[in-house]
Amino acid sequence: MPDEIKTLVAGLSAPEKSISPKYFYDEAGSKLFEDITRLPEYYLTNTELGIMEACVEEIAELAGERASLIEFGSGSSMKTRMMLRHLRSPAVYVPVDISEEHLLESQRNIKVDFPDVEVIPVVADFTHSFDLPSPTTMPLRNVVYFPGSTIGNFEKEDAIDLLRVMYQEAGPDGALVIGVDLQKDPAVIHAAYNDSAGITARFNLNMLRHLNREFSANFNLDSFAHRATYDSDSGRIVMELVSAEKQVVRIGDARIQFDAGETITTEYSHKYTLDDFEAMAVAGGFSVAKVWTDSKQWFGVYYCIRD
Ligand code: SAH
Ligand code: AVI
Fold first, then answer.
1. What is the rounded (10 degree) CA torsion for 67, 70, 71, 77?
2. What's the gap in Å between 110 CA and the centre of ligand 1?
């Protein structure tokens, strides 16, 4: 059995079933995520964009001339446009994403809108080491960009490991600009993952369609339901798919048994305090040079440097 299916089957055979959130992002999943970012309840995107508008000039000043911009999980590169408009003669933009079609389509648009910037997309799973391409212009500094609070989708130890990967990619004198969702009224957080239009539910269930197509699975999407709950002890959203009935599902050559009400955890979305995240950045090797927040302190954008 190929390693990827083995990992999926192992996750679905554990006493507490889980699937990595990276499987949300096929072409349809990436489009559904874009729809989520426009939902009135999903405060994260607009809040981060508002902070960026206020601080992007300062970030550009800190990054300096001829920086390379390496973005982890670039999606549609919407926030990146603001960075590219302000950075001083960026040497290259390297968007890294697992969702191939969506990445390539987004980068065709970026190339049209920023004809003077070299753009080299990399299709990769950023949790494994990958080779950075060599740009035509030698950068003076690498700036790793990780917006959207995607870091929150990793459990603490994995998030620190990922920060260490970014530390390596940043190289000597490099920097990390990272967006982080903060603790707030649980009702606001709960609504963001339980939108009234049902888009988050479609995004969650689309993961099963993705597995059916790519891994010869036969999940019946009508027999699973979306659930997202905020756990105040761990300070995170737990997103699950709940089996409506007792059933057996095939994936590859394996058969997975479900009881009625049994769940698959599909995502955690951690919400931090400003100090919690600073401690994680430090554990990843960085020190925080500056952090900007919105007036309600709902979201933070950190500029971290290598120690
Ligand atoms: N940065 C964008 C998109 C965030 S959605 C924003 O702030 O709005 C998360 C993005 O990370 C998606 O585009 C998804 O395809 C990508 N992604 C998730 N897990 C990944 C992984 N393990 N490796 C590479 N890309 C990943
Ligand atoms: C990509 N990531 C930061 C999103 C989040 O909010 O955790 C994914 C998402 N899940 C449900 N809605 C959006």
1. 60
2. 17
